[in-house]
Amino acid sequence: MIVTHNSGGVIEGCLEALAKMAPEVSPVVVDNASTDVSVGRARRAGAEVVANGENRGFAAAVNQGFRTTAADFVLVMNPDVCLSTSVDGLVRAAVENGLSAGQLTDSGGRPQTGFTIRRLPTAASLSFELLGINRLWRNNPVNRRYRYLDRGPGEAGFVEQPAGAFLMIRRDIWEKLGGLDEGFHPVWFEDVDFCRRALDAGYRIEYVPEVKAVHEGGHSVSQVPVGCRTRYWYGSLLRYAGKHLRPSGYWAVWLAAVTGAIPRMAAGMIHDKSLRPATAVLEIFRSLGRRKHSSPAGQIRTGQDA
Asked: Among 116, 224, 243, 281, whose CB has the most other CB atoms within 10 angstroms?
């Protein structure tokens, strides 16, 4: 199941690789109001296409895909992911555990370490992301733990949060959890939230590195308007923190968001040579102000430690 939005340049390659490496899979493409040739190319490649008249966001599109197919196992893939092997190992692992994920590599076959699998975010790891510490000091202890930099990319077994770009989900789990949370709109952290809820419900996520796919990377993010990316990311990150962190952890993340927004604004203005990043950050501040005054205890559910 593949979600597209102006993915005409990559969807054919994705579907061709899927047909070659996993011919038993019946591809479903949910298109979020593309204005390019995505829908036509997906149909030409033999996929069943659900064409939305508006961009409903990633989570809603994934849920549509599940409702479109009756398959017991659904492989969620980004359109810039091309299978390199069969998916038999993912199916076997999903039968036993519930969710499974393969290894994403670049075009040269090098593992995408730090992206393919991660541990669930904590208040510390989210704060380090917001403050830019993980970019400046990649090997800090918090980031090493968060991005599984302390684990070899070929080491199979349990993981907490594989990338939603290449994730197999058993249908009964999707139904029990009520699908992906469509409040993470339009993108970011919906896959993290789903993995967290699956683990909380007692399911296991298995990493199967012998199942591989080439991931171009950056395609999904590039479809989000530049002026909206930071705002959407902050909003989804804070929604996750509000759902799953303890109140003390949530407020620590909130403070890091406020503190980290200013250097992001300055860097963005220098990079873009425009005032658009400043406008985006001002909107973030307004959003953070609303969240500070509208994040009741009922919205913040006791979760992992800060």
From this structure: 116
Q: Identify each DSSP E strand in 126-185 by its residue range.
A: 157-158, 161-162, 166-170
- Please give the pLDDT value at position 55: 96
Mean per-residue pLDDT, 283-298: 56
Give residue-wise pLDDT tens across range 133-188: 999 999 999 999 999 999 999 999 999 999 999 999 999 999 999 999 999 999 99
173 and 27 share a domain?
Answer: yes
Whether residues 127 and 169 share a domain: the answer is: no
Amino acid letter at 250?
Answer: Y
At residue 12, what are phi and psi to the nearest 5 degrees? Answer: -65, -45
The answer to whether residue 305 is domain-embedded is no
Q: Looking at the structure, do residues 56 and 161 belong to the same domain, yes or no?
A: yes
| Among the listed residues 160, 179, 146, 183, the one whose alpha carbon sits nearest the alpha carbon of residue 66 | 179
Burial call 56-65: b when 16+ CB within 10 Å, e when fewer: bbbbbbbbbb
Structural domain that includes position 49: 2-116+153-221
For residue 10, give the CATH number of its domain. 3.90.550.10
